[in-house]
C-alpha cells in the first residue's frame, strides 16, 4: 500500500538498496559513495530520488525475487524492464500497454516483462491503471443476484459501465482499460485484442462443449513497485501461468466460474455426496484440460509439480548466494495436490523484503 514515507525511512531504504545492488553488481566503493550522495541529496530536497536505468532494472528484478507470493522466481534475472518513467499521458500509456501485451505474450512464448511508469511524488501517484490485470473477464450482476462472467470483476465492471462501457454480455467479455492521471478524470479504453485459449480435454470430446477458455498471459497492473524507498504505482508486470491458477482457482473456485459441477455431471459422477470425491476428480480433469490446451496452442504454461521443483531450485540458489528467501506458505503451496509437492513440507516465512511488488488500494477507492 502506498503511504507517505518519512525522509529518514526513505533514505534508509535507498541506502539498503544501493548497498545490495553494489554488492551484487560489483560496484566500486567510489561509485557506491557517489550514488548514495546523489540519492541522499535528492531525498533531502524533493523527498525522492531518481534511479538510473541499471538501478531500476535490477531493482525490478529484485522485487520479483523478493515477492513472497510468487512460486516462479527461479527466472527472476530474466525479467525485461521497460523504462517509461517520463510518460504520464493516458493515451500514450494505453499505447504502451498494448505494446507490453504484445511483447509479453510473444506469440505464446511468454516473456517476463515489467513496464515502469512515473514514480509517486509527495502528492501521491502520478498515474494509476485501474485494472487488477490488463486482461480479465467482466462480471455482470443479474436481477436474480447471480453473476454472469467472473464474479471477481463485478466491482470493476460496474466502474467501467459508469464510464460508459457496455460489454456484449457473455461469460467471457474482455474488460476495457481504465487509466487515470492525477488531477484528471479516468479515461476508458476499449478491451484489447489478446491471445485466448479455448479449453479442450485430451480424452473427453465433450469438454469443449462447456465453452471454457482463458487468456494466455497474466499481467498484474494494480500493484505498486517499491525500490529504494521510491514507489511506482503503475508498473504492470507478467510472468506466465501455473496451470492450477486457471484450473483450480479462476475456473474451479465456487466464487469464480464454478466449473466443477458441470464437469462432474458430464463425467457421470455422483454429485449427491462430497465423499464420492466428485469435486476432486473433476478438478484433476479441469487442470488436465488447461495444461493440454495451452500446450496444444503453443502457449507457455507450467504444471504445479514442475513449478514447485523449480521453486526449490530457486531456494537452493538463493542459499548459495547468501540470501534469505521470503515466502507466504498459503500462496506458494499449489491449490491442488499440495502435499504431493516439495513446497508443502517447508515452514516458509514472509520476511517482507524490499524491493517488492506490493498491494495498494483500488484506484477508484483512493487515488
Describe this structure in words.
The protein has helices spanning 7-25, 29-46, 53-66, 90-105, 154-162, 243-250, 260-267, 278-296, 304-320, 329-332, and strands spanning 80-83, 113-116, 127-129, 139-141, 147-149, 177-181, 187-189, 196-198, 213-215, 219-220, 224-227, 230-232, 237-238, 241-242, 301-302, 356-358. The protein has 367 residues and is α+β, with helices and mostly antiparallel strands. The protein has one domain (51-331). The protein has a four-stranded mixed β-sheet with strand order 1-2-13-10, sandwiched between helices. Helix 1 (7-25) runs antiparallel to helix 2 (29-46) and helix 6 packs across helix 8 (278-296). It is globular and about 70 Å long. The N and C termini lie close together (11 Å).
Layout of helices and strands:
Blueprint: H1 7-25, H2 29-46, H3 53-66, E1 80-83, H4 90-105, E2 113-116, E3 127-129, E4 139-141, E5 147-149, H5 154-162, E6 177-181, E7 187-189, E8 196-198, E9 213-215, E10 219-220, E11 224-227, E12 230-232, E13 237-238, E14 241-242, H6 243-250, H7 260-267, H8 278-296, E15 301-302, H9 304-320, H10 329-332, E16 356-358
Helix pairs in contact: 1-2, 6-8, 7-8
